[in-house]
Amino acid sequence: MNRRETLKDKKRIVVKIGSSSITHAKTGLLNLTKLERLIRELVNLRNQGRDVILVSSGAIAVGKKTVGIAADDNHIAVKQACAAIGQAKLMMTYQKLFAEYDQTIAQILMTKNTLLNNLNRFNAHNTFTELLKLGVIPIVNENDTISTYEIQFGDNDTLSAIVAALVEADLLILLSDIDGLYTDDPRSNSKAKFIEVVEKIDEELLKMGKETTGSSVGTGGMSTKLSAAKIATMAGIDMVIANGKDISVIHKIIEGRNYGTLFCANKEEYFYLADYIENKL
Ligand code: GLU
Question: What CA–CA distance (Å, rounded) separates 143 from 110?
Answer without folding.
Answer: 5
